[in-house]
What does this fold into?
Amino acid sequence: MKEFDATVVNASGREVILDRTAFYPEGGGQPDDKGVLAIGGEVCGVVGLKKDGNNIIHILDREVNVGVGIVATGKIDWEYRYACMRYHTALHLIDGIMETVYKSGMITGGQIYHDRARMDIDMPSLDKGKVAEILEKTNSIAKEGHYVLIREIDRADAMAMPGLSRTEPGRKLLEKLERIRVVEIVGIDTQADGGTHVKNTKEIGTIMLNGYENKGARRKRIEIVLA
Ligand SMILES: [Zn+2]
It folds into this structure.
């Protein structure tokens, strides 16, 4: 969803809460969206978002004086968001391929930007040549065109899927949630995840290595760019 209508629930200064939103607040290594919000006869820039409990606060580029109940129209910066989606799915695909093809290696941290992404990988044997090999394999699988499916499941079902979260903090979080959102790259990778993704791995394009840093036996940092 790129555009949506919503109703103002709360507005104060530059901060607006709506009854619903398509803007992504930062999370899971993916940055918050940017875009515009038409509100009270003005078109304001949305320069950031933050979470406050269950609310998502839209931070505008200027103060607005609007009451509760008025209708606003949001439009996300699709070029920026779509780039983040491509990087996010790329990271899941790399993670899934290490798991399914190499039976070793795991992404333990990462940060997505609209023009690059970095990840920390726990794989002691991972040198630059091995990274190149993994990325080559990932690119060939991406081009096969695997669908990316998103659904929500109950906690009990999630607990019965051991690979859903591969890190300890992730598993702890799953135990606290009633419903769990699952992102599946069909045939490759299934993970609990709150981020936004492309619909098919063909949309990722070609993953290229942009940096490699050995930060310890269990922490290799790599940066990728997409073409
Ligand atoms: Zn993710």
Observations:
- Residues 28, 88, 92, 193, 195 surround zinc ion (CB under 6 Å).
- Residues 82-226 form a domain with the Threonyl-tRNA Synthetase; Chain A, domain 2 fold (CATH 3.30.980.10).
